[in-house]
Amino acid sequence: MSQQPKPLIRRSEDVEYEAVGAADGMRKGVLIDESRGAPNFAIRRFELDPGAEVPEHTNEVEHEQYVLSGEYTVGIGDEEHTVSEGDSLLIPAGVVHWYRNEGDEPGAFICAVPNGDDEIELVE
Fold first, then answer.
1. InterPro entries annotated for this entry (predicted)?
2. CATH code of the domain in which 68 resides
3. CB 3.0 to 4.6 Å from 123: which of 33, 56, 62, 88, for a disulfide?
């Protein structure tokens, strides 16, 4: 029998951000995940600097995203979409996607994923 998760409040100043390897000008902060007691999902916050580019890649798990600020371009499959504050996205598992911030303002979004392994594969 699994233990009941404990409620958690995590303050913004406690979240550490790190550069995302293959992505130029993108940072990731893990807000809540398994290591903080969340049984099913992880939520992360990403920041995209002006001029940032994230190459085409796939993930093994679905992504649900919510744009917090800025305006940037997202490629999903064969289509490009300009997204901005308040927009929501579903990127199904295995679908090629990428990001580009051509604006002068940074962009930021929340991304929710199922807990567990997520293999990221760059598309050549």
1. Cupin_2, QDO-like, RmlC-like_jellyroll, RmlC_Cupin_sf
2. 2.60.120.10
3. 56
